[in-house]
Structures are given as structure tokens and as C-alpha cells.
Amino acid sequence: MDIDAELKQIEQRICTLTSEQFEMPACQNLHSSCKDTMETVVNQALTSSKGGKRLRALLSLLSYDAANSTISSNKSSSENSKENFNRASMIDLACAIEVFQTAALIHDDIIDESSLRRGIPSAYCAFSKVYNNLRIGTGLGIMLGDLLAAESFNIAGNCAKNLKNTQELLLTFSDTQRSVCVGQVLDISIEMMDLDNTELLAQSSLNVFKWKTASYTTISPIKLGFLSAGLDPKLANDLAYSIGEPLGIAFQLADDLLDVVSDPKHTGKPVGGDIREGKRATLLADALQNSNEKDKAYLKKAYTKKHRSSGDVKRIIDIFYKSGAIEKSKKRIKDLWEQSQQALQNSELSEEAKNIMQSIIERFIPEQWRI
User: Fold this and answer.
1) What is the mean pLDDT of residues 37-49?
2) The domain containing residue 312 runs over which residues?
3) Which of 63, 83, 137, 235 is deepest in the core (most CB within 10 A)?
């Protein structure tokens, strides 16, 4: 399979689907001032939808291929023709996941007050600049996120009727959106948590990763792909969780780690962006648990004030290294990766299907943290 060709097709299809969703009657025949605003929103929708690795779409699409490989290796020519039609619908479903991802990121940037996304101004900042008004920019950002979330469900509904397990597909898609919202609430609640209970902080952070990240990054894409191919719903659910949950948590741990050890040219975000935002995750919990009293006091003070300077970011990263939090995070990632691998290898999928799955899940975790 040519992954690059798949990526190109997904990227083009996302652009087409997003444009089509804004061709609704409500967006036509508007007063000139309203029309200009709507055009700005549509253009930002297309801008915000560009870029990204499209890992969720690829995972869902290849999970579909893997399930098809397991279900049957011999199809008649007429069945193959129908399968090609179904795969086109599966591509749209995979794109729907990415559209929802964009919606979630737009809202996430507003909550975190992040000015950049994928190396360019985040949606609400772009709107704020156009209208020279933060309140209007934030309001339009919220509505764009809502529009894209609704759009993602429209896309899913249109293509699900051409796929197997239609009802389960739509329930899974809606449950995924709810899980992400629950995860976001939990994420916000951690900002108010007492930093003295480091074990609770670490456990709560991992729970957020399960609800907010793994739910729509790995679990749902795998489950949607398996269901769409016709895999038994219970088996699809069990495999999606056993393979996807540890993979998704490891993915978020790796993303947090990349925030402090990687070049911003590669991540599209400044080094220590999560630290500047005051994000309380496992790195902080592990550092608090293993630091000396002086560093522990500094971390608590830094994370309870409103803003952290560049000097704060540098010192906090140094403490993360010195306390062993960086190495502990790497170990967590490796352990979760191995758990996901074991679930895949012990699954009822065919050997060909396992190879298909392996080819995509390896893209979620940097190689140096898998071995």
C-alpha cells in the first residue's frame, strides 16, 4: 500500500468535504456584511483543516483493510467492485474523524489560549486579527469548532449507510465526541488540583489521556474501521480497546515529551508550550515526586502563577531531566507500546491483517521510544 498516495487522497477529500458542507442554503443569499463574515469563516475552516499527519484517518482506513483481510481473502469480481465503492465511503468516514479532530483542536486552542497551531495562527487568533477584536475572534472560533464538529457527523452519516454495522458506526462516532468533551472537562479540572498529591495527579493525567486523546485518536479509528468492514461489533470493540487504548495513551505521553525535547520547526509549536500553558500532566507529577525540596517548591510556585517566563520554561525542563521524569515518561511509553503490541499479536486478526495494522501503528510512536 502506498501510504503517501493515501495521504494525498485523504487531504484532497477533506478539502472537498469541508467546502461542500458550507454550500448549505443558510450560507447563501446573505447580506453583504454577513456574507463577508461567513466567507472568512469558510476560508479559516479550510486553513485549519490543512496539515497534520492524518494518523487517525490512516489508522481507521487501514483497520478497515485489516478487517476485510481477516473476514475474507477470496471475493468474486462483483464483490470486489462493491468493495471499491465501500472503500470510497470508508475514506469519507476516515476524513470525518479528521474534521472532528480539527474542531477539537480549534476549541482546545481557545481553552489553552494557544496562539499557534501547526506553525500558523490558531483559528481564534486569526479571526481576532482580521476583526481586531479578541471577543469576536474567540466567538467565531467557538462557532467554527461547533460547525466542524457538526460537519463531521454529517459526513459520517452520509457515508455510514454504505458501510457495514451502520447503526453501531454512528453510535461510536457520537460516543467519541462525547468522550472527548468529558476528557476536556477532566483536563480543566486538573488545573485546580492540589499539587501535593503527585500520585493522584499522575493517575488523573493518564485518565485524561484515555478520554481526551485515546478515545478519538486510536480507539475510535480502529473500531470504526473494523465495524465498517463487518467485523462483529463486540470483537471490534474489544480489539479497539485492547490495541488502541495503550497506544493512544502512549501517543499523548510521546506528544508531551516531544514538547520539551524536540525542535519547534518539526512540531509547529514553541519548545515548552505545554509548560507555558501550565499543563499539569505526568511529566510534572513525576518531577514533583522525585525532585528535591527546593526544585519541588519551585515547580509548585511556577505552576500556580498565571504566566511562566522563558526562564521558567528552561528551568522546569532542566528539572524534568534532573528528576528523572523524562526517563520515566519514556519507560511509560515503551511499556504501553508493548501492551498494544501484545494485544495485536494475540488478536484473532489474520497475519496479513496484523501486518497491515503494524504498518500504521508504528507511525504513532517515535522509533527510539519503542525499542
Assistant:
1) 94
2) 3-369
3) 63
